[in-house]
UniProtKB/TrEMBL annotation:
It comes from Sitta europaea (Eurasian nuthatch). The keyword Zinc-finger applies. This is V(D)J recombination-activating protein 2. InterPro entries: Gal_Oxase/kelch_b-propeller (IPR011043), Kelch-typ_b-propeller (IPR015915), RAG2 (IPR004321), RAG2_PHD (IPR025162), Znf_FYVE_PHD (IPR011011). CDD domains: PHD_RAG2. Residues 415-492 form the Recombination activating protein 2 PHD domain. One of its GO terms (cellular component) is nucleus. Keywords: Chromatin regulator, DNA recombination, Metal-binding, Nucleus, Zinc, Zinc-finger. Zn(2+) binds at C420, C424, C447, H453, H456, C459, C479, H482. The keyword Metal-binding applies. Belongs to the RAG2 family.
């Protein structure tokens, strides 16, 4: 084994707890960043490019017919092929935490639809299930098994929020172990069935699962209820005859009490188990080789690499499988660093140089990472470790489109995340889509008062119908603060004069004739 240090280039703050690995055609992508994606990469999916021991990140793209894939931390993820030896494949993504710390129960299928030298385009489709649908969770695993020419997905473990009926004021946002049920998911018919097996008594999360043909091996894992790491090795066997599936579980000897371990495949039948934790504050520095042959599993201790002093003395570490027998490991940087969330990264190569060649990875590997510290049981506090993976080989694409977070303006103070008014309630850390047209940023509208300024449509209490009408019509809009002022400054509109019909001439009144004596009498009285 060899250990080599790599450096990140001005974007390590995006690498936060819970990232997931997607490997397409030898190029590694990850998604699930902390916080909602920014304008430079609205999809939240990045290509990891390691060149000359420097790690760079490049935005990925989605097709127009894709659904929105939110950034999910600690989801269950695995590769799905048409059959065990097929070349084409896609990824299944289930559950995980959203940036608002809500738990997702959705299932997404992600596949590569086009590829050029500078751009790779993906398609994401959300799948609907019926039957015993798994509840929202994180820290679980999903694998694909093949039996009698048919395939099914198997989901197990994880954590979820305490049910509403059991919540108290003191523990309103606490998490608990999910029930130790095994879910068989048939995506062809969109149905799901759960099985309760007597051998599985406690819920587990952040365990390791390895699938081969019709068998899944479950190793380690952490139980919140007992605060223990399981020393058992479980063997799940799934038979898919013409009728109902047959699911059985066997407890095997030789397990390892570990959580958050990482598994990488070095040959068709051999794997290496690296890292993890014996307890909340004790890292596991030993390595093991796992051999699968003839429906049997053998776990033996192997030679560990020469760990650096920084790795030995740090309280926690994290990492993920890079494929082809390599693992990316990370440790927190020193607190005196200029960048507070900077980390140090290492590539651990478990195979010799003569064995480091391209090979087909037939076996499904699914592992989760977590520090298992008190922050993990409090969903509104971030865990101290994350799952991050990359390919050791370089991706020879133009560096012009490399994502650099320093080049992007701070959207917490400008752009979509401004404080638009005194009663503004839009916050980058807690915002969720309000209108059907919103994806990863709030809808805004321009107020025409003075030089103009932008306001959030939600803060202005605009209905979706009114918002669409204002966006389509060529009219000026004034926010709640300036609408009355604008009315007072408006010049009254000219009112067209109505054409009045000519009035009828008045009739000439008849006069009375007076006698001369009467006139004299009237004048005398008038001047007296």
């Amino acid at each position: 084994m060899s250990l080599q240090m790599v450096s990140t280039v001005s974007n390590s703050s995006l690498l936060q707890p819970g990232f997931s690995l997607l490997n397409f055609d030898g190029h590694v992508f990850f998604f699930g960043q902390k916080g909602w994606p920014k304008r430079s990469c609205p999809t939240g999916v990045f290509l990891l490019d390691i060149k000359q021991n420097e790690l760079k990140m490049k935005p990925a793209f989605f097709s127009k017919d894709s659904c929105y894939l939110p950034p999910l931390r600690y989801p269950a993820l695995c590769m799905l092929r048409g059959d065990a030896r097929a070349d084409e494949y896609q990824y299944i993504i289930h559950g995980g935490k959203t940036p608002n710390n809500d738990l997702s129960d959705k299932i997404y299928f992600m596949s590569l639809v086009s590829k050029t030298s500078k751009k790779m385009t993906f398609q994401c489709i959300e799948k609907d299930l019926g039957g015993d649908v798994p509840e929202a969770r994180y820290g679980h695993t999903i694998n694909v098994i093949h039996s009698r020419g048919k395939s099914m997905s198997v989901l197990f473990g994880g954590r979820s929020y305490t049910p509403l009926a059991q919540r108290t004021t003191e523990k309103w946002n606490s998490v608990v172990d999910c029930l130790p049920s095994v879910f068989l998911i048939d995506f062809e018919f969109g149905c799901c069935t759960s099985y309760i097996l007597p051998e599985l008594q406690d819920g587990l999360s952040f365990h390791v699962s390895i699938a081969r043909d019709d068998t899944i091996y479950i190793l380690g894992g952490h139980s919140l209820e007992n605060n223990t790491r399981s020393p058992n090795l479980f063997k799940l066997k799934i038979d898919l005859p013409l009728g109902s599936p047959a699911v059985s579980c066997t407890v095997l000897p030789g397990g390892i009490a570990v959580s958050s371990a990482i598994v990488t495949q070095i040959s068709d039948t051999e794997f290496v188990l690296v890292g993890g934790y014996h307890s909340d504050n004790q890292k596991r520095l030993a390595c093991n080789t796992i051999v699968l042959e003839d429906s049997k599993i053998e776990i033996v201790e192997s030679v560990s690499p020469e760990w650096t002093p920084d790795i030995k003395h740090c309280r926690m570490w994290f990492g993920c499988d890079m494929g082809k027998g390599s693992v990316l490991l990370g440790i927190p940087g020193a607190t005196k660093q200029i960048t507070p969330d900077a980390n140090y990264f290492y590539i651990l190569r478990c195979k010799g140089a003569e064995e480091d060649k391209e090979e087909e990875l037939i076996t499904q590997i699914c592992s989760q990472t977590s520090s298992e510290d008190p922050g993990d049981s409090t969903p509104f506090e971030d865990s101290e470790e994350f799952c991050f993976s990359a390919e050791a080989n370089s991706f020879d694409a133009d560096d012009a489109d490399t994502y650099n977070e320093d080049d992007e303006e701070d959207e917490s103070e400008t752009g979509y995340w401004i404080t638009c008014c005194a009663s503004c309630s839009v916050d980058i850390n807690t915002w969720v889509p309000f209108y059907s047209t919103e994806l990863n940023k709030p809808a805004m509208i321009l107020c025409s008062s003075g030089a103009g300024h932008w306001v959030h449509a939600q803060c202005m209490d605009l209905s979706e119908t009114m918002l669409l009408r204002l966006s389509e019509a060529n009219v000026k809009y004034f926010c709640n603060k300036h609408v009355d002022l604008n009315k007072g400054l408006q010049t009254p509109q000219k009112v067209a004069c109505l054409k009045k019909p000519p009035m009828k001439p008045l009739r000439k009144k008849k006069t009375m004739k007076l006698s001369p004596s009467t006139k004299k009498s009237f004048l005398r009285r008038l001047f007296e």
